[in-house]
Amino acid sequence: TTHLVWLRNDLRVNDNLALHAACRDSDAKVIALYLATPAQWQQHDMSPKQAAFIHASLLQVQRALAERGIELHYQACHAFSDSVDALLQFCAKQQVDQLFYNYQYEVNERQRDAEAEKRLDDAGVICQGFDDSLLLPPGSVQSGDRSMYKVFTPFSKAFVRRLQQGLPECVPAPKAREGAPLKASPIPAFDYPTEDFDQDLFPPGEAAALKRLRHFATQPVIDYPAKRDLPALDATSRLSVYLATGVLSPRQCLHRVLHEHPDALDNSRAFTWLNELIWREFYRHLLVAWPALCRHKPFIDWTRNVEWQRNDAHFDAWKAGKTGYPIVDAAMRQMKALGWMHNRLRMITASFLVKDLLIDWREGERYFMQQLIDGDLAANNGGWQWAASTGTDAAPYFRIFNPTTQGERFDEKGDFIRHYLPELAGVPDSDIHQPHVWAEKHHKKLDYPAPIVDHKVARKKTLDAFERAKSAA
Ligand code: FAD
Question: Whose CA is closest to 446, among 352, 329, 324, 316?
Answer without folding.
Answer: 324
